[in-house]
Target: Phosphoglycerate kinase
Amino acid sequence: MAGFKTLDDISDVGGKRVLVRVDLNVPVANGKVTDLTRIERVVPTISELSDKGAKVILLAHFGRPKDGPAPDLSLRPIAAATAEVLGRPVAFAADCAGEKAELAVAGMRNGDVLLLENTRFYKGEEKNDPALTEQFAALGDVYINDAFSAAHRAHCSTEGLARVLPAYAGRTMQAELEALEKGLGAPVKPVIAIVGGAKVSSKIDLLMNLVKKVDALVIGGGMANTFLAARGTDVGKSLCEHDLATTAKQIMIEAATAGCAIILPVDGVVAREFKAGAANETVAIDKVPGDAMILDVGAKTIETINQWIDRAATLVWNGPLGAFEIEPFDKATVSAAKHAAARTKAGKLVSVAGGGDTVAALNHAGVADDFTYVSTAGGAFLEWMEGKPLPGVEVLKK
Ligand SMILES: Nc1ncnc2c1ncn2[C@@H]1O[C@H](COP(=O)(O)OP(=O)(O)OP(=O)(O)O)[C@@H](O)[C@H]1O
Ligand SMILES: O=C(O)[C@H](O)COP(=O)(O)O
Model:
């Protein structure tokens, strides 16, 4: 890959301690990994290094721990899931820095794979603290970043390490960058974006620039509720970040200036409980009962979204349109996914989707393989779309 050093540029990796940043931030329900895509995507790099006799030390985060170690955000169960997908043992160290990590690394044999505990259990990780970077660096001889989906974060494990160790792009990082450039480098117009999901605060700012790049922006999921509330619609108990109303309004103004249509739900499926099979009804968006939450967009909105997909030559999608994990609130996401997949198969649409949960939703709809490209990245994918330099990618450039 032009401009980057890859695994092809490392000579003689046998016996070396190779720190590999992977993204194992996978969807989990009742202690079980519900979508293995992110794990499957890091297999090529891990297997290649292990086959060449490297000591493969995996660094990863899980969730967003607020205050140091949190037992429910341990990577321990993910080590077992990774071993199963990889088809070889994956040892686990209960710390990612300091004595426990050092001992675990010292005990490795050539070809072994070791997963270290959640890097975000250290506050320094998200601050890109050089002292923590040094602690990580002490565990390895070489650094490989295979986590494109975390490359929008300038953290010790995604950016800092590349400054202190010989650094390379992993196979998945390489494949993601190549595929995105091929699919979206010069997108054919009209381009529409569908943005939904729950990570409203971390993604809303990205929409400010996205509306300058696309012809239409369809907003669903929790993101839509925030825009609806900003517009003065009562969204009852729905997932909504009311303090982002000003940002949402600015985005709508920016979109109008740029000539980008904003498509918000006109109806919603509401329920009083967030659980599968909860009693629900479809209501007009200005009739959401005060004690209910919108868990999916309604039938009229689905029809509109599918019509926009029909008009598009390129579709960019991040974030499900509803709480797709719990039926029947998966309807809109499944309908739009199947519609986009059929248009893609007919050669009428270039469809690129990204995001941990978005990939899970496309798998749930059974159409992930029919999209032009499915990226494991959510926030990173949107930032890449905006044309923003990603710290974890920039630092790898030759
Ligand atoms: N109306 C809604 N109310 C509550 N939750 C919702 C709603 N719509 C979507 N969600 C939730 O949004 C979550 C996915 O959002 P997220 O922004 O994390 O997606 P992603 O970009 O694919 O993932 P990531 O950013 O982790 O890669 C799902 O768990 C889904 O249940
Ligand atoms: O799920 C993701 O998009 C990545 O793993 C990054 O996670 P973050 O948004 O918590 O940094």
Notes: The CA atoms of residues 151 and 392 lie 4 Å apart. DSSP finds 15 helices and 17 strands in the chain. The mean pLDDT is 95. The pocket of 3-phosphoglyceric acid (ligand 2) is lined by residues 23, 25, 64, 149-150, 153, 202, 356, 378-379 (CB under 6 Å).
